[in-house]
Design brief:
By secondary structure, this protein is mostly helical. It is built from nine helices and three strands, in the order αααααβββαααα.
């Protein structure tokens, strides 16, 4: 969700509501005999208003989960979730008289602070990360399809190596050729490789390239470093004949695509990782606030 001009009405309305709440709080805090308190009439109003805004913010996930419940546009709910959820934070502080309290009240203040901070971090990530992914991942793909694309890259690499079939120290390189009628036929060109070249190519593929392509992620893989990868392929070209240069080039391009997929995976995890903190704590917050309200009214 990008924060653009469409958010301006929400910012203005939320800001106006905040100013009204602040204007009511100033005389309330100055002239209250015992100071502002969550148990006072205005304190309860702030608390209830803040809790209702939290519930509204939580309804966004309910709307996403239950597809039959589609009231309003998704973008409207997202903007309301962001700005009204943010407004609940000062209302909670007005309710508490800017005191962190003790026991359950203090715990709630910490949780609501973490929820708000994680939400703001998520909003910033959603604003900047999509553009960053586009810039840093030239061959971006659908995130849920990354594993399938990776398998395709491994298959292409295996096919390239399979096109070099050893026969008496020769590798039959299968290449396309066009006939006079512009029809494509397949021929097999014998490429003379020394045993050293053949062993070097196969060893590099089996020990380095294939394990890198076969595993999602790049942790501990030398091919994950672009400079190291270029150096390894440059060394391989020095021992291989020019005839299989296209094969080596294709293998290098496949490894580059794999690096792009890994980079996209890392950025996508950053983009979505904040939800692992924000969502569970939000539901915990709603539950504990309800308990806090019941205990306050009862005792």
């Amino acid at each position: 969700m990008r924060i653009d001009q469409t958010h301006r009405p929400w910012i203005l309305r939320t800001g106006a509501l905040f100013l009204l709440a602040l204007l009511a709080y100033v005389p309330y805090s100055l002239f209250s005999y015992n100071g502002p308190s969550g148990g006072s009439s205005l304190g309860l109003i702030y608390g209830v208003a803040g809790y209702l805004l939290m519930i509204f913010a939580a309804l966004l996930s309910v709307r996403k989960k239950f597809r039959i419940w589609r009231i309003g546009r998704a973008q409207t709910w997202m903007r309301g979730h962001l700005w009204l959820g943010l407004l609940s934070y000062p209302l909670i502080f007005f309710h508490a008289g800017f005191s962190w309290g003790h026991g359950l009240a203090r715990l709630l203040m910490w949780i609501v602070s973490i929820v708000i901070v994680s939400g703001l971090l998520g909003a910033a990530l959603q604003h900047y990360m999509p553009r960053m992914i586009t810039e840093r991942v030239p061959m971006e793909t659908i995130y849920n399809q990354i594993h399938r694309v990776q398998e395709q890259l491994l298959g292409e690499a295996d096919d390239l190596m399979g096109s070099l079939s050893p026969e008496q120290n020769e590798y039959g390189l299968i290449v396309p050729s066009s006939g006079p009628a512009a029809t494509m036929t397949t021929t097999s060109t014998a490429v003379q490789l020394s045993q050293h070249s053949a062993d070097k190519l196969r060893q590099m593929y089996d020990d380095t390239i294939k394990p890198y392509l076969a595993h999602r992620g790049s942790r501990g893989q030398s091919m994950a470093d672009e400079a190291t990868s270029k150096a390894m392929f440059a060394q391989l070209r020095t021992v291989a004949p020019d005839s299989i240069g296209t094969v080596i080039d294709d293998l290098e391009n496949i490894c580059q695509e794999k690096r792009d997929l890994d980079r996209q995976s890392r950025l996508q995890r950053m983009l979505q990782g904040w939800l692992l903190v924000h969502i569970p704590l939000s539901y915990l917050l709603l539950t504990l606030v309800a308990i806090h309200a019941i205990m306050a009214l009862r005792y």
